Please model this.
Amino acid sequence: MTVTTVHPPAVDPLRWPDVARVPHAPLRAAAAGRLLRRAAALRGLRIELPGSPDAPGSPDAQDAPVLRLHRPAAFAHRVGAGGLIGFGEAYQAGDWDSPDLARLLTALAARPETLVPPGTGWLRRLYVRRPPAAERPTTANAPRNIHRHYDLSNELFALFLDPTMSYSSAVFSAPSAATRWADLVPAQHRKIDRLLDLARVGPGTRLLEIGTGWGELALRAAARGAEVTTLTLSAEQLALARRRIADAGQSDRVDVRLCDYRQARGSYDAIVSCEMIEAVGRPFWPAYFTALDRLLAPGGRVALQAITMPHDRMLASSDTYTWILKYVFPGGQIPSLRAIADTAAAHTRLRVHSADAYGPHYAETLRLWRERFTERAGQVAELGFDEVFRRMWELYLAYSEAGFRTGYLNVHQVLLDRDGER
Model:
Protein backbone atom coordinates (compact mmCIF):
# COMPACT_ATOMS: atom_id res chain seq x y z
CA MET A 1 0.00 0.00 0.00
CA THR A 2 1.22 3.47 -0.87
CA VAL A 3 0.94 5.96 1.95
CA THR A 4 0.35 9.50 0.72
CA THR A 5 0.90 12.78 2.48
CA VAL A 6 -2.39 14.24 3.70
CA HIS A 7 -2.82 17.97 3.97
CA PRO A 8 -5.42 18.81 6.65
CA PRO A 9 -8.03 21.42 5.78
CA ALA A 10 -7.34 25.03 6.64
CA VAL A 11 -9.38 25.73 9.75
CA ASP A 12 -10.73 29.23 10.36
CA PRO A 13 -10.37 29.69 14.15
CA LEU A 14 -13.14 32.29 14.21
CA ARG A 15 -15.61 30.04 12.40
CA TRP A 16 -14.46 26.76 13.97
CA PRO A 17 -12.72 27.57 17.29
CA ASP A 18 -12.99 24.08 18.80
CA VAL A 19 -11.84 22.43 15.56
CA ALA A 20 -8.84 24.75 15.25
CA ARG A 21 -7.77 24.12 18.86
CA VAL A 22 -6.24 20.78 19.84
CA PRO A 23 -6.76 20.22 23.60
CA HIS A 24 -3.95 18.99 25.80
CA ALA A 25 -5.10 16.00 27.84
CA PRO A 26 -2.27 13.44 28.05
CA LEU A 27 -3.87 11.05 30.53
CA ARG A 28 -7.20 11.04 28.72
CA ALA A 29 -5.39 10.76 25.38
CA ALA A 30 -3.70 7.59 26.60
CA ALA A 31 -7.09 6.21 27.65
CA ALA A 32 -8.51 7.11 24.24
CA GLY A 33 -5.70 5.18 22.57
CA ARG A 34 -6.51 2.08 24.61
CA LEU A 35 -10.21 2.48 23.80
CA LEU A 36 -9.42 2.70 20.06
CA ARG A 37 -7.39 -0.50 20.21
CA ARG A 38 -10.25 -2.20 22.06
CA ALA A 39 -12.73 -1.01 19.43
CA ALA A 40 -10.49 -2.29 16.63
CA ALA A 41 -10.30 -5.73 18.24
CA LEU A 42 -14.03 -5.95 19.02
CA ARG A 43 -15.25 -4.63 15.68
CA GLY A 44 -12.60 -6.05 13.37
CA LEU A 45 -11.28 -2.65 12.28
CA ARG A 46 -7.97 -1.93 10.59
CA ILE A 47 -6.14 1.12 11.95
CA GLU A 48 -3.74 2.76 9.52
CA LEU A 49 -1.02 5.07 10.84
CA PRO A 50 1.12 7.63 8.98
CA GLY A 51 4.03 5.95 7.19
CA SER A 52 2.67 2.44 7.75
CA PRO A 53 -0.50 0.88 6.35
CA ASP A 54 -1.38 -1.10 9.46
CA ALA A 55 -1.03 -0.50 13.16
CA PRO A 56 0.51 -3.34 15.17
CA GLY A 57 -2.13 -5.82 16.19
CA SER A 58 -4.74 -4.58 13.70
CA PRO A 59 -6.74 -7.23 11.84
CA ASP A 60 -5.15 -8.48 8.64
CA ALA A 61 -8.39 -8.92 6.70
CA GLN A 62 -8.20 -6.77 3.60
CA ASP A 63 -11.93 -6.10 3.63
CA ALA A 64 -11.99 -4.83 7.23
CA PRO A 65 -13.41 -1.33 7.86
CA VAL A 66 -10.49 1.11 7.89
CA LEU A 67 -9.77 4.09 10.14
CA ARG A 68 -6.83 6.12 8.82
CA LEU A 69 -5.11 8.22 11.43
CA HIS A 70 -3.26 11.13 9.83
CA ARG A 71 -2.48 12.88 13.13
CA PRO A 72 -2.71 10.24 15.85
CA ALA A 73 -1.69 12.51 18.73
CA ALA A 74 -4.24 15.19 17.88
CA PHE A 75 -6.92 12.51 17.42
CA ALA A 76 -6.17 10.95 20.82
CA HIS A 77 -6.17 14.28 22.66
CA ARG A 78 -9.45 15.37 21.04
CA VAL A 79 -11.22 12.09 21.80
CA GLY A 80 -9.72 11.92 25.29
CA ALA A 81 -10.86 15.44 26.12
CA GLY A 82 -14.20 15.48 24.31
CA GLY A 83 -15.41 11.94 23.72
CA LEU A 84 -17.65 11.65 20.68
CA ILE A 85 -17.66 15.43 20.19
CA GLY A 86 -13.87 15.24 19.97
CA PHE A 87 -14.17 12.30 17.56
CA GLY A 88 -16.31 14.42 15.24
CA GLU A 89 -14.08 17.47 15.54
CA ALA A 90 -11.06 15.31 14.75
CA TYR A 91 -12.74 14.31 11.48
CA GLN A 92 -13.59 17.92 10.66
CA ALA A 93 -9.94 18.87 11.27
CA GLY A 94 -8.65 16.07 9.04
CA ASP A 95 -7.00 14.11 11.87
CA TRP A 96 -8.59 10.91 10.51
CA ASP A 97 -10.70 9.60 7.68
CA SER A 98 -11.79 6.35 6.06
CA PRO A 99 -12.12 5.07 2.49
CA ASP A 100 -15.65 3.93 3.42
CA LEU A 101 -16.86 6.25 6.16
CA ALA A 102 -20.39 4.85 6.47
CA ARG A 103 -19.10 1.28 6.78
CA LEU A 104 -16.61 2.24 9.48
CA LEU A 105 -19.24 4.13 11.48
CA THR A 106 -21.72 1.28 11.10
CA ALA A 107 -19.18 -1.07 12.66
CA LEU A 108 -18.63 1.35 15.55
CA ALA A 109 -22.36 2.03 16.04
CA ALA A 110 -23.26 -1.62 16.59
CA ARG A 111 -23.92 -2.02 20.34
CA PRO A 112 -21.78 1.01 21.27
CA GLU A 113 -22.14 0.30 24.99
CA THR A 114 -19.86 -2.74 24.58
CA LEU A 115 -16.93 -0.59 23.43
CA VAL A 116 -16.41 0.75 26.95
CA PRO A 117 -14.67 -1.69 29.32
CA PRO A 118 -16.93 -3.01 32.09
CA GLY A 119 -16.90 -0.87 35.21
CA THR A 120 -15.64 2.28 33.50
CA GLY A 121 -18.99 3.79 32.48
CA TRP A 122 -18.74 6.32 35.30
CA LEU A 123 -15.86 8.00 33.42
CA ARG A 124 -18.42 9.24 30.90
CA ARG A 125 -19.34 12.10 33.19
CA LEU A 126 -15.82 13.50 32.89
CA TYR A 127 -16.45 14.65 29.32
CA VAL A 128 -20.22 14.57 28.78
CA ARG A 129 -21.74 18.05 28.79
CA ARG A 130 -25.29 19.27 28.96
CA PRO A 131 -26.76 21.28 26.07
CA PRO A 132 -26.33 25.05 26.51
CA ALA A 133 -29.35 26.92 27.85
CA ALA A 134 -29.24 29.18 24.78
CA GLU A 135 -30.03 26.16 22.58
CA ARG A 136 -33.07 24.92 24.50
CA PRO A 137 -35.90 25.02 21.93
CA THR A 138 -38.02 27.58 23.75
CA THR A 139 -40.29 29.87 21.78
CA ALA A 140 -37.51 32.47 21.85
CA ASN A 141 -34.64 30.12 20.96
CA ALA A 142 -36.33 27.82 18.42
CA PRO A 143 -36.10 30.24 15.44
CA ARG A 144 -32.36 30.62 16.02
CA ASN A 145 -31.89 26.84 16.21
CA ILE A 146 -33.83 26.34 12.99
CA HIS A 147 -31.92 29.16 11.30
CA ARG A 148 -28.58 27.49 12.03
CA HIS A 149 -29.54 24.41 10.04
CA TYR A 150 -32.35 25.06 7.59
CA ASP A 151 -31.30 28.58 6.61
CA LEU A 152 -27.78 27.56 5.58
CA SER A 153 -28.74 27.87 1.91
CA ASN A 154 -31.57 26.52 -0.22
CA GLU A 155 -28.95 25.97 -2.91
CA LEU A 156 -26.91 23.75 -0.58
CA PHE A 157 -29.85 21.46 0.13
CA ALA A 158 -30.75 21.38 -3.57
CA LEU A 159 -27.31 19.95 -4.32
CA PHE A 160 -28.04 16.65 -2.59
CA LEU A 161 -31.83 16.40 -2.27
CA ASP A 162 -34.00 15.13 -5.11
CA PRO A 163 -36.27 17.52 -7.07
CA THR A 164 -39.06 17.18 -4.49
CA MET A 165 -36.71 18.84 -1.94
CA SER A 166 -37.88 16.29 0.64
CA TYR A 167 -35.50 16.24 3.64
CA SER A 168 -36.88 13.17 5.42
CA SER A 169 -36.91 9.44 4.91
CA ALA A 170 -38.33 8.11 1.69
CA VAL A 171 -40.33 4.86 1.57
CA PHE A 172 -39.01 2.59 -1.18
CA SER A 173 -40.82 -0.39 -2.65
CA ALA A 174 -37.89 -2.55 -1.45
CA PRO A 175 -34.90 -0.74 0.11
CA SER A 176 -31.53 -2.34 -0.66
CA ALA A 177 -28.02 -1.58 -1.88
CA ALA A 178 -29.52 -1.74 -5.39
CA THR A 179 -31.68 1.33 -4.69
CA ARG A 180 -30.69 4.10 -7.10
CA TRP A 181 -31.13 7.86 -7.35
CA ALA A 182 -33.94 7.43 -9.87
CA ASP A 183 -35.94 5.59 -7.20
CA LEU A 184 -35.91 8.54 -4.80
CA VAL A 185 -38.65 10.80 -6.20
CA PRO A 186 -41.33 8.06 -6.35
CA ALA A 187 -40.21 6.88 -2.90
CA GLN A 188 -40.60 10.37 -1.44
CA HIS A 189 -44.06 10.64 -2.96
CA ARG A 190 -44.92 7.21 -1.55
CA LYS A 191 -43.87 8.43 1.92
CA ILE A 192 -45.96 11.61 1.65
CA ASP A 193 -48.99 9.77 0.29
CA ARG A 194 -48.90 7.26 3.15
CA LEU A 195 -48.89 10.10 5.68
CA LEU A 196 -51.77 11.83 3.92
CA ASP A 197 -53.67 8.55 3.74
CA LEU A 198 -53.12 7.94 7.47
CA ALA A 199 -54.62 11.37 8.19
CA ARG A 200 -57.43 10.76 5.65
CA VAL A 201 -56.62 13.90 3.69
CA GLY A 202 -58.91 14.42 0.72
CA PRO A 203 -61.15 17.01 -0.96
CA GLY A 204 -62.13 19.75 1.48
CA THR A 205 -59.92 18.53 4.34
CA ARG A 206 -58.67 21.35 6.54
CA LEU A 207 -55.06 20.25 6.95
CA LEU A 208 -52.42 21.68 9.26
CA GLU A 209 -48.81 20.79 8.50
CA ILE A 210 -46.25 21.50 11.23
CA GLY A 211 -42.88 21.81 9.54
CA THR A 212 -43.24 22.94 5.92
CA GLY A 213 -39.88 21.83 4.60
CA TRP A 214 -39.78 23.10 1.04
CA GLY A 215 -43.46 22.51 0.39
CA GLU A 216 -43.77 19.11 -1.30
CA LEU A 217 -46.24 17.62 1.19
CA ALA A 218 -48.42 20.73 1.07
CA LEU A 219 -48.42 20.56 -2.72
CA ARG A 220 -49.54 16.93 -2.79
CA ALA A 221 -52.23 17.61 -0.18
CA ALA A 222 -53.51 20.57 -2.21
CA ALA A 223 -53.61 18.38 -5.32
CA ARG A 224 -56.03 16.14 -3.40
CA GLY A 225 -58.29 19.14 -2.82
CA ALA A 226 -57.29 19.89 0.76
CA GLU A 227 -57.10 23.38 2.25
CA VAL A 228 -53.62 23.53 3.72
CA THR A 229 -52.07 25.69 6.43
CA THR A 230 -48.39 24.91 6.84
CA LEU A 231 -46.00 26.28 9.49
CA THR A 232 -42.25 26.83 9.39
CA LEU A 233 -39.65 28.78 11.35
CA SER A 234 -37.20 28.92 8.44
CA ALA A 235 -37.21 32.10 6.37
CA GLU A 236 -35.32 30.33 3.57
CA GLN A 237 -37.82 27.48 3.43
CA LEU A 238 -40.73 29.91 3.59
CA ALA A 239 -39.53 31.80 0.53
CA LEU A 240 -38.85 28.74 -1.61
CA ALA A 241 -41.99 26.88 -0.53
CA ARG A 242 -44.16 29.85 -1.43
CA ARG A 243 -42.45 30.12 -4.80
CA ARG A 244 -42.89 26.42 -5.57
CA ILE A 245 -46.54 26.55 -4.48
CA ALA A 246 -47.19 29.61 -6.66
CA ASP A 247 -45.47 27.98 -9.64
CA ALA A 248 -47.75 24.96 -9.19
CA GLY A 249 -50.83 27.20 -9.16
CA GLN A 250 -51.80 26.16 -5.64
CA SER A 251 -51.48 29.46 -3.75
CA ASP A 252 -55.23 29.61 -3.23
CA ARG A 253 -55.16 26.26 -1.42
CA VAL A 254 -51.91 26.56 0.61
CA ASP A 255 -51.11 29.19 3.25
CA VAL A 256 -47.44 29.08 4.33
CA ARG A 257 -46.84 30.84 7.64
CA LEU A 258 -43.74 31.72 9.65
CA CYS A 259 -45.17 30.48 12.95
CA ASP A 260 -44.21 28.38 15.97
CA TYR A 261 -46.50 25.40 16.62
CA ARG A 262 -47.19 26.80 20.10
CA GLN A 263 -48.67 29.93 18.57
CA ALA A 264 -50.87 28.20 15.99
CA ARG A 265 -54.60 28.80 16.10
CA GLY A 266 -57.60 27.25 14.40
CA SER A 267 -59.37 23.91 14.04
CA TYR A 268 -58.21 21.27 11.56
CA ASP A 269 -59.59 17.95 10.34
CA ALA A 270 -56.09 16.53 10.00
CA ILE A 271 -52.60 17.39 11.23
CA VAL A 272 -49.43 16.07 9.60
CA SER A 273 -45.89 16.62 10.83
CA CYS A 274 -42.96 14.96 9.11
CA GLU A 275 -39.74 14.66 11.13
CA MET A 276 -40.32 17.85 13.07
CA ILE A 277 -40.79 16.38 16.55
CA GLU A 278 -37.02 15.83 16.74
CA ALA A 279 -36.56 19.61 16.95
CA VAL A 280 -39.13 20.06 19.75
CA GLY A 281 -36.91 18.97 22.65
CA ARG A 282 -37.95 16.60 25.43
CA PRO A 283 -39.01 19.31 27.94
CA PHE A 284 -41.45 20.63 25.33
CA TRP A 285 -43.03 17.37 24.16
CA PRO A 286 -46.05 17.95 26.45
CA ALA A 287 -46.58 21.39 24.88
CA TYR A 288 -46.24 19.90 21.38
CA PHE A 289 -48.88 17.19 21.93
CA THR A 290 -51.12 19.63 23.79
CA ALA A 291 -50.99 21.88 20.72
CA LEU A 292 -51.90 18.95 18.46
CA ASP A 293 -54.87 18.08 20.68
CA ARG A 294 -55.99 21.70 20.86
CA LEU A 295 -55.81 22.23 17.10
CA LEU A 296 -57.42 18.95 16.04
CA ALA A 297 -61.15 19.07 15.29
CA PRO A 298 -63.46 16.34 16.65
CA GLY A 299 -62.99 13.16 14.66
CA GLY A 300 -59.65 14.34 13.30
CA ARG A 301 -56.42 12.38 12.92
CA VAL A 302 -52.74 13.19 13.42
CA ALA A 303 -50.05 11.55 11.27
CA LEU A 304 -46.44 11.96 12.38
CA GLN A 305 -43.23 10.77 10.82
CA ALA A 306 -40.66 10.60 13.60
CA ILE A 307 -37.08 9.46 13.93
CA THR A 308 -36.98 7.26 17.03
CA MET A 309 -34.54 5.35 19.22
CA PRO A 310 -35.06 2.60 21.81
CA HIS A 311 -36.48 3.97 25.04
CA ASP A 312 -33.55 3.02 27.26
CA ARG A 313 -31.08 4.67 24.91
CA MET A 314 -33.26 7.76 24.75
CA LEU A 315 -33.22 8.02 28.53
CA ALA A 316 -29.45 7.47 28.67
CA SER A 317 -28.72 10.13 26.04
CA SER A 318 -31.28 12.66 27.23
CA ASP A 319 -29.78 15.98 28.29
CA THR A 320 -26.43 15.03 26.73
CA TYR A 321 -24.62 17.46 24.44
CA THR A 322 -23.56 15.53 21.36
CA TRP A 323 -21.55 16.37 18.25
CA ILE A 324 -24.79 16.43 16.22
CA LEU A 325 -26.36 18.93 18.63
CA LYS A 326 -23.25 21.12 18.67
CA TYR A 327 -22.73 21.32 14.94
CA VAL A 328 -25.82 20.14 13.06
CA PHE A 329 -29.14 20.18 14.95
CA PRO A 330 -29.01 22.44 18.02
CA GLY A 331 -31.75 21.90 20.57
CA GLY A 332 -32.98 18.56 19.28
CA GLN A 333 -33.89 15.28 20.99
CA ILE A 334 -34.89 12.06 19.25
CA PRO A 335 -37.85 10.45 21.05
CA SER A 336 -38.70 6.81 21.54
CA LEU A 337 -41.99 5.39 20.32
CA ARG A 338 -42.88 4.78 23.97
CA ALA A 339 -42.15 8.43 24.83
CA ILE A 340 -44.50 9.56 22.06
CA ALA A 341 -47.30 7.31 23.30
CA ASP A 342 -46.74 8.09 26.99
CA THR A 343 -46.51 11.86 26.51
CA ALA A 344 -49.65 11.98 24.39
CA ALA A 345 -51.55 9.83 26.90
CA ALA A 346 -50.37 11.83 29.91
CA HIS A 347 -51.17 15.28 28.56
CA THR A 348 -53.88 14.92 25.90
CA ARG A 349 -56.82 12.87 24.71
CA LEU A 350 -54.70 11.60 21.79
CA ARG A 351 -53.66 7.96 21.65
CA VAL A 352 -51.26 6.13 19.33
CA HIS A 353 -53.43 4.06 17.02
CA SER A 354 -50.68 2.57 14.82
CA ALA A 355 -46.94 2.88 14.16
CA ASP A 356 -45.12 1.54 11.11
CA ALA A 357 -41.31 1.33 11.03
CA TYR A 358 -39.13 2.20 8.02
CA GLY A 359 -35.57 2.20 9.39
CA PRO A 360 -33.90 0.44 6.41
CA HIS A 361 -35.58 2.94 4.09
CA TYR A 362 -33.85 5.81 5.89
CA ALA A 363 -30.46 4.12 5.62
CA GLU A 364 -30.81 3.99 1.83
CA THR A 365 -32.20 7.53 1.66
CA LEU A 366 -29.15 8.80 3.55
CA ARG A 367 -26.78 6.77 1.39
CA LEU A 368 -28.19 8.40 -1.74
CA TRP A 369 -27.94 11.88 -0.20
CA ARG A 370 -24.38 11.22 0.96
CA GLU A 371 -23.23 9.95 -2.42
CA ARG A 372 -24.82 12.95 -4.15
CA PHE A 373 -23.26 15.39 -1.68
CA THR A 374 -19.81 13.83 -2.08
CA GLU A 375 -20.06 13.91 -5.88
CA ARG A 376 -20.86 17.63 -5.76
CA ALA A 377 -18.16 18.71 -3.31
CA GLY A 378 -16.87 21.26 -5.81
CA GLN A 379 -20.27 22.92 -6.01
CA VAL A 380 -20.49 23.01 -2.21
CA ALA A 381 -17.23 25.00 -2.23
CA GLU A 382 -18.58 27.33 -4.93
CA LEU A 383 -21.47 28.19 -2.59
CA GLY A 384 -18.92 29.45 -0.05
CA PHE A 385 -18.80 26.48 2.34
CA ASP A 386 -15.28 25.56 3.42
CA GLU A 387 -13.63 22.16 3.72
CA VAL A 388 -14.35 21.88 7.45
CA PHE A 389 -18.06 22.33 6.74
CA ARG A 390 -17.95 19.80 3.90
CA ARG A 391 -16.33 17.22 6.18
CA MET A 392 -18.85 18.03 8.92
CA TRP A 393 -21.77 17.41 6.58
CA GLU A 394 -20.22 14.26 5.17
CA LEU A 395 -19.75 12.88 8.70
CA TYR A 396 -23.31 13.87 9.67
CA LEU A 397 -24.83 11.98 6.73
CA ALA A 398 -22.63 8.89 7.23
CA TYR A 399 -23.14 8.94 11.02
CA SER A 400 -26.92 9.06 10.57
CA GLU A 401 -26.86 6.29 7.96
CA ALA A 402 -24.89 4.09 10.37
CA GLY A 403 -27.49 4.69 13.07
CA PHE A 404 -30.28 3.34 10.88
CA ARG A 405 -28.23 0.42 9.56
CA THR A 406 -27.52 -0.84 13.07
CA GLY A 407 -31.00 -0.21 14.50
CA TYR A 408 -29.67 2.38 16.92
CA LEU A 409 -32.13 4.67 15.14
CA ASN A 410 -35.46 3.96 13.47
CA VAL A 411 -38.17 6.01 11.79
CA HIS A 412 -41.90 5.53 12.30
CA GLN A 413 -45.08 6.80 10.72
CA VAL A 414 -47.42 7.18 13.68
CA LEU A 415 -51.18 7.66 13.65
CA LEU A 416 -52.81 9.35 16.64
CA ASP A 417 -56.50 9.93 17.24
CA ARG A 418 -58.97 10.11 20.10
CA ASP A 419 -60.36 6.78 21.29
CA GLY A 420 -63.97 7.84 21.40
CA GLU A 421 -63.89 9.52 17.99
CA ARG A 422 -62.65 6.68 15.81
Summary: The first strand starts at residue 46 and ends at 48.
